Amino acid sequence: MKTLFRSLFAAALVTTAATAVSAQAVPAAPADTARIAFNPALINAVNTQGFEQFRETVRPLIAQMAGKKVVALGEGTHGTAEFYKLRFWLTRILMEEHCFTQVALETTYGGARRVDEALHQRTAPALKPLMQKHLLSIWQNQETAEMLTWMQAYNRRHRGHQVSLAGIDAGFGADNAQLVQQGLSQRNPTLRPHIEQLTKSAAFQDAMWMKLNEKSSKFDQPAWLSNGLAGYAAADALLKALPTARLPRAQREGLELALHNSRMVFDYPYQVKFNRRESSRDSLFAAMTQQLVRKPGSKIVLWSHNAHLSRQSTDPADNNGGGAGSFLERMFPGQYFVLGTSTAFGTFAATPQVFVSPLSPMAAYPLPAPKAGSWENSLAQVSSPAFFFNTHQLGTQDVQRPQRLVGQTPASVSQYADFQLSKAYDALLFVRTTTAATPL
């Protein structure tokens, strides 16, 4: 059975919004409920009171990340303030000290690009309205805004070393289509039918995703399939024609990324029609990341859920190749580092809508105590309130146990997946008690 994280769109196609969460239940945890007593030598306490204190306490962790091409920073819960803040600080260190130039979120490329444009303008336009229009609501919070504001200020001070925001997801397609329309519509009249089709298909699919949050909505699979195949064909045709368009190099590269992501937006109907299988969302995350770091020397930081960035699938029955981390490890052997994050108690921000969009309302919800036998149950007993450890040093304690994977809905607090930590992450950052992110 697929989890909500790994097959969000496929789940939406076979269930109503009212039943989708219950249909995504994770298999039961193993019977072993004994707590693990961690070796104190493995525990690296982290000071979270301020950036400079944090930077000093995570030096050993940064040393493991610095030489990698792709560093993935996971979150065990969507909507947790501390995970946004600490990942921002880690990203800042990697950008300031180790030549990382991109951070990519679990959101569509075109939406992130619209926000990124504001990060490079000397006039420093307001970020809040752009975030609310173009980013999924899980990123519409004060903590993410703090990172983007820092990036905007950094770019004004470092004109020769710019940092950028990107997206690796493939959900809503209108922003991609708009970028393509603005960049190509005046270049070649023969491309206009493809541009019009891409725009039409993206608008249709975006509206369909939004309707899935309405309890009375009925999914029209034939229309979805026909529209998606037309959109995929249009994006493919434009991508193949792009080299013939006389464009400045930077503009051409941006349009190429938008078109690659547009094809991914319609990969779901494409795979159903031609390969008779579900689309692998994690493989799309990895493929988009690969596009973003094609240039020699490119280094990127990824922000997404633990369930995506893990090397290990959240579902033992999954045959799509593992988490995005598994695909990325094969693409970049030895150049991928993944940090998982986890918490035991507190609150998190979530939406009652099963299909998260830029318009999904977010509110704070409590986290129940972790279940007996879970990693969180054992980690909560460590004396330090915040710490990290290298998963490959766990030794005989590196056993398969349930780890909580909280998504964007209140009901997701009951979701667990069995993980042997060293097979999932290189390191894990644990904060015992956390708080809900602050909506914009």
TrEMBL record:
Pfam families: Erythro_esteras. CDD domains: Ere-like. Residues 1-25 form the signal peptide. Keywords: Signal. PANTHER family: ESTERASE, PUTATIVE (AFU_ORTHOLOGUE AFUA_1G05850)-RELATED. This is Erythromycin esterase family protein. The lineage of its organism: Bacteria, Pseudomonadati, Bacteroidota, Cytophagia, Cytophagales.
